[in-house]
Amino acid sequence: MFRAWLPRKDEFFALFDQHTTTALLAGLAIRDALTNLHDNAEAIARVERAEHACDKITHDTVDLLRSSFITPFDREEIRRLISRLDDIVDYIESAAHRLTLFRILEVPPEVVELASVLIRTQEQVVDMVKMLRTMKKNQEMHDHVKEINRLENEGDKLHRKGIAALFENGGDPLTVMKLKDLYEILETAIDCCEDVAQVVEGIIIEHES
């Protein structure tokens, strides 16, 4: 009974870390699926397994929040953080489903580049979320935020370039719309990484003030 009153910071931080590293596995898997479109069933299955694992971690976090009297930071911020983290992997799974649903067997190189930018952004998220354990507002935090913003801009440029090329090349309209959808989902996943960075930065700044 009294255990719920005790500080359980490590449990929350462990769940956050598990979520980011598992979501990164999904990011790696979607890039594998995009680089081997004719034989990507195993890679897509990896995305789905990672997404299901992240769902469980999210549910475990909410359950822990409900059962804990003391939390490492504001309850609403915990809910917001785990929700934003889950958005990333949800969009990655959406991209994987599009490959199967639309039977996409060829993509422009910019799509694979966008997936690579997503992975690099997720790697920054993994490192930044770990900083919640110390709650220190320092140069390292600012460097992560800056790099995530830079990668988000890089993703935006690839997205715009890719969409423009789709319409300029005058391809089959149905194929154009399928690829446009894929571009937008991957770009949104990168945007979600930036959302996580803003949440983490806000928590750390609030904790320091």
How many helices? The count is 6
- Rg on CA atoms, Å: 18 Å
* Low-confidence sequence ranges: 1-7
Strand fraction equals: under 5%
How does the major sheet shape up? Answer: none
Counting DSSP E segments of at least 2 residues, the number of strands comes to 0
Overall spatial form: globular
Helix-strand makeup class: mainly alpha
Distance between the termini: 33 Å
Helix content: over 70%
Overall pLDDT confidence: 93
The sequence of SSEs as H and E is HHHHHH
In short:
By secondary structure, the chain is an all-alpha fold.
Structural notes for this entry:
- The chain is an all-alpha fold and 209 residues long.
- Helix content is 81%, strand content 0%.
- It contains six helices and no strands.
- The radius of gyration is 18 Å and the shape is globular.
- The chain has helices at residues 9-35, 41-67, 75-101, 109-130, 139-168, 173-208.
Q: Main traits of this protein?
A:
209 residues; mainly alpha; 0% strand
